[in-house]
Automatic annotation (TrEMBL):
Keywords in alphabetical order: Menaquinone biosynthesis, Methyltransferase, S-adenosyl-L-methionine, Transferase
Example GO BP: methylation
SUPFAM superfamilies recorded: S-adenosyl-L-methionine-dependent methyltransferases
Top-level class of the enzyme under EC nomenclature: transferase
InterPro entries recorded: SAM-dependent_MTases_sf (IPR029063), UbiE/COQ5_MeTrFase (IPR004033)
CDD domains, A to Z: AdoMet_MTases
E.C. code: 2.1.1.163
One GO molecular-function entry: demethylmenaquinone methyltransferase activity
Gene: ubiE_3
Name under which the protein is recorded: Demethylmenaquinone methyltransferase
Organism: Candidatus Thiodiazotropha endolucinida
Amino acid sequence: MTTSFQNRENVRRQAFESIWESQIDAVFSDVAAVYDRANDFASLGTLNGLRRRFIATIDVSPGQRVLDVCAGTNVVGIDLLKKEPNLDIYAVDRSDAMQKVGSDRAAQQGFDIKGHICDVHRLPFPDNHFDVVTLQYATRHLRVIDVFSEINRVLKPGGHFYHFDMLRPASKIIEEAYCLYLRGCLKTISWAIRVGPEARNCCDYFIDAIRLFYSTDELSRLLSELGFSDVIGKPLLGGTVAIHKACKV
């Protein structure tokens, strides 16, 4: 691992660790019931289409064991079971409230997703356990090197990791326009859904988290340095989001 990525992670941790440790849970508990609608609004209705593109990239076969990290409301697990009903899907998340919404949603549609509440930096599974691991719309709130290393550990050799998230655009002009849009959007959503003080107080954090995060190419290089192979990163919407696919050697 090059010092540049280690230094970036140290900067992120120093800037955000207190928020990650003491505020993020409260934010997601506050918005759990409306989380998916709020994300759809913030993306101007594009998120569902982007997620369909993400699901389409995920190669699964009957009987495979799949882990969805930071599963939230289980949208990815449910979509994968619609794509291939004979999957053994596990979900991990630190938010009880988000997983309660996700568990209810899966049950209403007749799907079985095995949920675990845990710290995703230390996954409660043995080495070489999963055929596929997914992670979407959460990495900005995590210690990336630690989580990606854990994902590599629990993947079987030849297994695949699929990642989808908001990223920092490589273009400074796009980054500035994007952050300006997000600032106004977050304030509007906070007012519209009447979020609690924890979520309102984190509006600036969500912008700062993008500014200190990785571009598509940077995340690809990080995955490669962590030992993944055949890394593919596809930027979308000017690099404001991206889909990555990587293989465990």
